[in-house]
Structures are given as structure tokens and as C-alpha cells.
Design brief:
- This protein is of the alpha/beta class.
- Helix 8 (231-252) packs antiparallel against helix 9 (257-277).
- The chain has helices at residues 24-32, 53-63, 90-98, 118-128, 179-182, 190-193, 197-206, 231-252, 257-277, 281-298, 302-307, 310-313; strands at 11-17, 40-46, 68-72, 103-106, 134-142, 148-151, 176-178, 211-222.
- This is Glycosyltransferase involved in cell wall biosynthesis.
């Protein structure tokens, strides 16, 4: 077989990892087991691991030089970035940039595929739906030992519109998208500044189309250690929901604005109600600042009136 750099693969599985020595081998093995009728590659971006992750990745890259490219990016050699840039995103963006495939499959280093045809099914969907730029597949939350926790896609087994993403955001490691569709984005400041890069890409790539759903055996999306759900993470989830809503407004301004506006209202009320109930003043003030920023940016001053409209208060998203 030719070296992976000699021919362009159809799909580049992009994996970013940092200190995931307990999980990275399973992630890599789940990619190596893929059964396809096309060429693919695995591009691993290591964010300066110090726990043995690097040695594991190097061993796999040496054993599979035609499939795996491995990049170690020391945290000491980062470019100087402005204060408003998410510096932890450097490894991810650089990993995307080095991908050689027509499509990118995003698989985090502590997650894993369970379907040997994960890539094949995605390719078949893209071939049948050339207007679709991004897809997602089934996924389950699992714990550190791969025990089932939650069916993440139970409510969203369908093609999604951008407005669906505020409350129904697919799992990052189930995503695949067209490289050409993000090539320009990778050179723009927004790629560094977006609060949630996965949501930003989902909204941007589905803005004038849709986000395709591809049935597969579920991706294992791992919750462990600091990732486990807790009261703190629940508060963070509510705040992130509002951030996502405001981010979607900025991406979709001029597209589906009315529906997006309604969902921003709902997300805002959910945040305020939750934080008032739990006397969380810090998060409450943070939510108010974000809502005020939305109003100033959009010029939608009627938002404050609608926010307290009792008829809208208990509406669900539609």
C-alpha cells in the first residue's frame, strides 16, 4: 500500500488527545477496525500529553504508517495569540488543517466507534445527499468502564435544522463534515473565538441546508472524572445552553431568525429560572450580561418585553 501522504484519503478521522493514556488505545483501535471500500487516514493531534499518551500514539503510528499520522504539539511552543482567543483550541484547529481527506470525522481521544462501518455509512449518506455538508450518528454516554449511561440521540434521530441545535446538540465524536466547507473558516478569527466550536461548525455548515442523521451503532461518548455530571456541571450546562442560543443567533442572523429568537427567549428564561431557584447570583448575572449583549448587538429591544410575557413563559420549543 502507498504511504498515506501519497494519495488523498476520502475521510480523515481527526482525533485530539491530552493525557488520555487510559482511553486512547481503544479510540485508535475503533478506527483501525473500520471496514470500507475507500481509503481513509487517522490524524492524531496530541496537546502536549505527559502521562504516556504520546508513547501509545507513537507506537500505533509506527505500526500503521500508511494509516496514522501523529503530531505532538508542546504547550510551550504555542504562537502568541490575543486575549480573546481560545488558546486551548490550537491543537484542534491545527489537526483539522493537516487533514488530507475530502471529509473530516471528529473523534475525541477518550471516545470510540462501535460500528465497523461507521465511516462507510457516512460516505454512503454523503454520496446520496450531495447538498448535505455535515452529518451526525447515534451515540451513547458511557462511563470510564464503558458502562451505558444515556442514549444521547434518542430525541434527535432525524435530520436537523440549525434551530434544533440549542436543545438537541449531537455528540461531537459522532460528527463528520466536508473539509472544503470549513477550509475558509479555519483561517478566520471566528474559529478561535466561538464559545463552542462544535456547535459553531454545526450551525454554520447546516445554515443553508440541514444536518444529516446517519443511523449507526452508537459512538461511545465517555463521561469520566471531571466530565461526570454534577451540580456544578448542571449549572454549566444551563449557562452553555444560553451561550449556544446566542451563538446560533450570530451565525444564523438572516436565516431562520424568528425561530432562533424564540429559542433564545426560552433558553434565557430557563437559565434565569434555574439560577434564581438555586440562588446562584454569579451565573444569573452572567446570563443577564449575555442577554443584554444579545439585545445590544441585534437591536432587538422588544426582547426584554417578550422575556416577561406570561403567555410565552411556559412555551416549549417547536
Amino acid at each position: 500500500m502507498e504511504n498515506v501522504t501519497d494519495i488523498r484519503p476520502l475521510i480523515s478521522v481527526c482525533t485530539v488527545t491530552y493525557n488520555q493514556a487510559n482511553y486512547i488505545a481503544q479510540c485508535i483501535e475503533s478506527v483501525l477496525m473500520q471496514q470500507t471500500d475507500f481509503d481513509w487516514e487517522l490524524v492524531i493531534g496530541d496537546d502536549g500529553s505527559t502521562d504516556g499518551t504520546s508513547a501509545i500514539c507513537q507506537q500505533y503510528a509506527a505500526a500503521h504508517p500508511h494509516r496514522i499520522r501523529y503530531y505532538y504539539r508542546s504547550r510551550k511552543n504555542r504562537p502568541i495569540l490575543s486575549a480573546d482567543v481560545n488558546v486551548n483550541r490550537y491543537n484542534l484547529v491545527e489537526t483539522f488543517k493537516t487533514a488530507g481527506g475530502q471529509y473530516i470525522a471528529w473523534l475525541d481521544g477518550d471516545d470510540y466507534y462501535t460500528d465497523v462501518q461507521q465511516l462507510q455509512k457516512a460516505k454512503q449518506f454523503f454520496n446520496a445527499n450531495p447538498d448535505c455538508k455535515i452529518i451526525f450518528t447515534d451515540a451513547h454516554d458511557v462511563d470510564a468502564n464503558r458502562a451505558f449511561l444515556h442514549d444521547v440521540t434518542s430525541a434527535i434521530r432525524r435530520n436537523l435544522n440549525p434551530d434544533d441545535l440549542i436543545f438537541n446538540c449531537p455528540v461531537t465524536s459522532s460528527l463528520m463534515f466536508e473539509y472544503a466547507a470549513i477550509a475558509d473558516l479555519l483561517q478566520q478569527p471566528a474559529i478561535w473565538q466561538a464559545p463552542a466550536l462544535d456547535l459553531f461548525l454545526m450551525a454554520t455548515l447546516s445554515c443553508n441546508s440541514y444536518m444529516g442523521y446517519v443511523p449507526t451503532l452508537p459512538v461511545g461518548y465517555r463521561f469520566h472524572g471531571a466530565n461526570m455530571r454534577s451540580e456544578k456541571s448542571i449549572r454549566r450546562f444551563h449557562r452553555t445552553t444560553l451561550i449556544n442560543a446566542l451563538l446560533l443567533y450570530n451565525v444564523l442572523r438572516g436565516n431562520c431568525v424568528q425561530t432562533t429568537r424564540k429559542r433564545i427567549l426560552i433558553a434565557s428564561r430557563v437559565n434565569v429560572k434555574y439560577n434564581l431557584r438555586h440562588f446562584n447570583i454569579r451565573y444569573l448575572l452572567s446570563c443577564i450580561r449575555m442577554v443584554t449583549g444579545y439585545v445590544q448587538q441585534s437591536g432587538d429591544w422588544k426582547f426584554f418585553i417578550d422575556f416577561w410575557n406570561r403567555k410565552l413563559l411556559y412555551q416549549r420549543s417547536s
